[in-house]
Specification:
The chain is built from nine helices and eleven strands.
Length: 338
């Protein structure tokens, strides 16, 4: 006999879905005083309490926090080059029923194998379309696929999220070869433009976003947007609105009607082309020779204010998935009976 556990993620996500259905509405009728996407901040060990209150889902990095947070969690910065499986994360005990996604950050980056980076771009930084990185990608690709399988065994409804470098994203878009890197085991795909002189705007990402969206690795694959939320080395305040507008437009226009995929109903923006907008970086970090002053640091108050304004907007009512109640009933019952 199954007992409904009201503290479980299954119950909470189901409740969210039921509320969405009861509220009704249409994404086409989404008002300007709502938002049609989720928000999350990149985990920062020194600012855990602050980041908790600035996103819909809490992120967690086992490399700099001793205890995972309570509630739904995104495990960030997992590196497949490390010698451990998804289930063995540095000795930290994780309640996998609360993990909604695992984010693998730049698994093909130059810090992993510099040969890949040198093959996909010319010395001036432009994409080298004649280059073929496939031989060097193969072992990392195999490791990623294994990690994705491990995650599905531990948390069947969790998303496997891979974030690519700017160079890899440009190569995929310019050379019309997204399938070289973008594989069917990837549930959520994104690219990080922060290395581009410290500037990160939606316009520079359009070719990548359009190319990946046009040729997804599987019908239910979703995109994530990584927006800069730092005031230095380049102030990102003028660019935040572009990310918010893009996410709203894509999700409203689509009606969030992508298929569920093998995850089934999770209650976390199932079917929406843009799964989430992630703000990088919340605190302060030095990367690539530049110091990034995140939105929770002195000097970034205006970015924090704009992020929190958007975060405070109520979610548009029709977002979980545009299905009829009859179509949603079986997965709802499945979650309730877990």
């Amino acid at each position: 006999m199954h007992v409904i556990r009201k503290s479980s993620v299954a119950f909470l996500t189901t409740l969210f879905t039921v509320v969405v259905l009861l509220m009704g509405g249409s994404s086409a009728n989404a008002q300007q005083n709502t938002r049609s996407f989720q928000m999350v901040l990149w985990s920062d060990a020194s600012l855990t309490d602050a980041t908790l209150n600035n996103g819909d889902i809490r992120s967690f990095s086992f490399s700099n926090e001793s205890q995972p947070p309570q509630g739904p969690t995104i495990l960030v910065n997992y590196a497949p080059a490390y010698d451990y499986s998804v289930g063995n994360v540095g000795g930290v005990t994780i309640d996998w029923s609360r993990v909604v996604a695992v984010l693998v950050d730049e698994p093909y980056g130059p810090q992993v194998d510099p040969r890949i980076d040198s093959i996909i771009k010319f010395p001036d930084g432009t994409p080298a379309c004649p280059g073929d990185p496939t031989p060097y990608i193969a072992p990392i690709d195999a490791s990623l696929q294994q990690r994705a399988s491990e995650l599905k065994a531990l948390a069947p409804k969790a998303r496997f999220w891979v974030n690519f470098t700017e160079d890899e994203a440009k190569w995929m878009a310019t050379c019309h070869a997204p399938g070289t890197f973008n594989r069917s085991y990837i549930d959520v795909i994104s690219a990080d433009w922060s290395a581009d002189g410290g500037n990160n705007d939606i316009a520079s990402m359009q070719s990548f976003l359009s190319g990946v969206a046009a040729v997804p690795s599987k019908p239910d694959q979703q995109l994530a947007l990584i927006a800069g939320v730092y005031s230095a080395p380049v102030n990102q305040l003028p660019h935040l609105q572009g990310f918010f507008d893009y996410a709203n437009q894509k999700n409203q226009a689509s009606g969030c009607n992508l298929p569920f995929g093998n995850r089934g109903l999770t209650g976390f923006f199932d079917g929406c082309p843009i799964w989430i907008v992630l703000g990088w970086f919340s605190g302060q970090v030095t990367a690539g020779g530049s110091t990034y002053v995140g939105m929770l640091e002195p000097g970034s108050e205006l970015i924090k204010q704009r992020w929190e304004q958007e975060r405070a907007l109520p979610l548009a009512p029709a977002l979980a998935h545009q299905r009829t109640p009859a179509q949603l009933l079986p997965p709802i019952l499945e979650l309730l009976l877990q």
